[in-house]
Amino acid sequence: MRKNKTTHVMSSVFILLFIGVFLVISGRFLYIQGTGEVDGVSLQELADEKRTNSYTLEAERGKILDRNGMTLAYDRATYQISAILDEEYSKGLEEPKHVKDIDKAAAGLAPLLNMEATEIAAILERGKEEGKFQVEFGAQGKDLSQETKEEIEALQIPGINFEKESKRYYPNGTFASHVIGLAQKQDDVLVGRNGIEAEMDNVLSGKNGFISYKRDNFNAKLLNPDEVIEEADNGEDVYLTIDQKIQTLLEDAIAQVDEQYNPERITAVVMDPKTGETLAMSSRPSYNPNKLGEVSNWYNDIISTPFEPGSTMKIFTLAAAIEEGVFNPEETYKSGSYKNDDMNKAINDHHLGGWGPITYKEGIQRSSNVAAAKLVWEKLGTEKFLEYLKAFHFDQPTGIDLPNEQAGHILYDWPIEKVTSSFGQGTTVTPIQQMMAASAIANDGSMVRPYVISKIVDSETGKVVKEKQPETVGSPVSKETAEEVRDILETVITSENGTGHNIYNLNDYSVAGKTGTAQIPDPKNGGYLTGDENYIFSFLGMAPKEDPELVMYVSVKQPELDVNEQGSAPVSFIFKNVMENSLHYLNIDPDQDNSQQVETIDMPDVTGMSANKAKESLQEKGFDVTVLGEGDSIKALSNSPGEQLLPNERIIILTDKPTMPDVNGWSKREVLKLSDLLELEVETMGSGFATKQSIKEGGKVKKKDYLVVEFSPPENQQGGNEGQEDETDGSESPPE
């Protein structure tokens, strides 16, 4: 049979098609064999990946510490608990690996998770009914401490597992919170949100490492696993200039004022004027970074919130006038009100009608707005005064090493604005700008930049990586001017005419300073708010006057005052308590001969004595002595020989086998002494004196135990003196 021509053609086509497909496939195989890649993916790398196990070695975030090495923030191991319910998980095992007895497990876990046993049992029963492999216990089953984990493990409940997680922990709770800041998890990595945590995030965070090795199908490591280990590079430690003891004094005082007066805002900062080191800084409202809740203010008002400061600005008006040689303290002027031809409104003294003809020195003492206005307009000149405002850096941020600093604004367009700037109205500044400017007055004319970071230290070797040095940023006035300004500011406190008389004086130290009672702009109606409480009451002071070791600024906004109580009361309470105690703590020699002065006592050397003998010896000196432990040999003391202490100060003696004392009535400082001595991890809540403790009296304690102490303010706590006239900066509001 003759073949059809079409059959020949189709056969040829199929043969050619087959040959083409064969060549393509063969070529593809040859290509893959030669290159070892498919679609740009290396088959060798893919195989290695499939049979390689890899684990992240998490880097530990660096610590934040105070100037003396007290830890303020660190990574703390926490645990999340879960319970395995699937019986198949225990199949073929001698001991069960799942929760076998639900009621027994619930009864054991309940007190340790702060839950009801019935609630835990219901979670377990529901999970079992729904066929779940395991269940968790909500918020109560998270963030468990090492101590709680160990207590649960001691119950030996089968099926209970823990997952470890690093969490940033702040052992002092609401303590310099706006300075230290907050770090939170983002994509399983701790990231600084504000404060030092944000400012130094790249230094603190470190770099994760990893470990990898090849395995077989059963997840067992191969004989030649090609194991690779890259160690984690932990973050560096950051030491602050903050002094934990001075900060504690400040926090306690602010907390008491906050409790008693319920103000809108409180700000306070303590600085060494010779170096710019910030020793304490705090504000309210604040927050506890361990238990955030609802936070009403994330900003550090001391550096981020400019406001019209009021009469504390007269310090710098006075300094400019003295430096230019136009201030005659004995020259008289007519107080009460002032208006020149270029002003569309008069400005007034806070005392209606003024005090008649008085000297310029008395005008400063009485905080006369007219005195400041006449010095600028008639003596100094507005352009020259503007030069001094800029020389004191009121036109720029300080450059402090904290995030989100905002500079104030010199309002200087209209004639009345140039006048009101002389007494702190219209023009805005921040507390830290005032502190930097005040350092020139305290430091004989040399103005230093404030800072809070002392040094950066390698967390593994202890080697100092970088250390901050004091920085002089200007000399707006001479040494002689600075001394004269301090002399006059001292009379604000000592003179019967002074607005700070018998309010800001200290027992043992002379003070130079200036009060402020600033009006608050009315956002709704324009102008300024009215009413006895609608002011920002403040004080900027330094001590001792001749050679100031500390400068301190305090402001309290809109406190709730009792009838006839002055706005200076809450401000003076903070200033006096913190400044006096801080100077004593720093061993600054008193410069005032005060008949009521409290003598300090040198801590005797009791090393080598028995505990009982040492206790008797210290009690004879007038100290309050607490002995920890049953032994008779002294292991450690809370204070060092030769240290100057106040009468009745608590000294703690550590011996063998210490147990927890009853800390009821102890101050926060004494509790921190105890935690340092026993190396406890302590969290404090509230302020005042201790009322509750998490470790019961007589309980055994060991290093790294977690202690929570609640504090409550003492009753009938008073601050300041009643009946003292405050000054208010009572000019008419300047034009918009």
Automatic annotation (TrEMBL):
<feature type="transmembrane region" description="Helical">
    <location>
        <begin position="12"/>
        <end position="31"/>
    </location>
</feature>
<dbReference type="InterPro" id="IPR005311">
    <property type="entry name" value="PBP_dimer"/>
</dbReference>
<feature type="region of interest" description="Disordered">
    <location>
        <begin position="706"/>
        <end position="736"/>
    </location>
</feature>
<keyword id="KW-1133">Transmembrane helix</keyword>
<comment type="similarity">
    <text>Belongs to the transpeptidase family.</text>
</comment>
<dbReference type="GO" id="GO:0008658">
    <property type="term" value="F:penicillin binding"/>
</dbReference>
<dbReference type="InterPro" id="IPR005543">
    <property type="entry name" value="PASTA_dom"/>
</dbReference>
<dbReference type="InterPro" id="IPR050515">
    <property type="entry name" value="Beta-lactam/transpept"/>
</dbReference>
<dbReference type="GO" id="GO:0009252">
    <property type="term" value="P:peptidoglycan biosynthetic process"/>
</dbReference>
<feature type="domain" description="PASTA">
    <location>
        <begin position="658"/>
        <end position="713"/>
    </location>
</feature>
<keyword id="KW-0472">Membrane</keyword>
<dbReference type="Pfam" id="PF03793">
    <property type="entry name" value="PASTA"/>
</dbReference>
<dbReference type="InterPro" id="IPR001460">
    <property type="entry name" value="PCN-bd_Tpept"/>
</dbReference>
<feature type="domain" description="PASTA">
    <location>
        <begin position="597"/>
        <end position="657"/>
    </location>
</feature>
<feature type="compositionally biased region" description="Acidic residues">
    <location>
        <begin position="723"/>
        <end position="736"/>
    </location>
</feature>
<dbReference type="GO" id="GO:0009002">
    <property type="term" value="F:serine-type D-Ala-D-Ala carboxypeptidase activity"/>
</dbReference>
<dbReference type="GO" id="GO:0071555">
    <property type="term" value="P:cell wall organization"/>
</dbReference>
<dbReference type="Pfam" id="PF00905">
    <property type="entry name" value="Transpeptidase"/>
</dbReference>
<protein>
    <recommendedName>
        <fullName>serine-type D-Ala-D-Ala carboxypeptidase</fullName>
        <ecNumber>3.4.16.4</ecNumber>
    </recommendedName>
</protein>
<comment type="pathway">
    <text>Cell wall biogenesis; peptidoglycan biosynthesis.</text>
</comment>
<dbReference type="InterPro" id="IPR036138">
    <property type="entry name" value="PBP_dimer_sf"/>
</dbReference>
<dbReference type="Pfam" id="PF03717">
    <property type="entry name" value="PBP_dimer"/>
</dbReference>
<dbReference type="GO" id="GO:0005886">
    <property type="term" value="C:plasma membrane"/>
</dbReference>
<dbReference type="InterPro" id="IPR012338">
    <property type="entry name" value="Beta-lactam/transpept-like"/>
</dbReference>
<keyword id="KW-0812">Transmembrane</keyword>
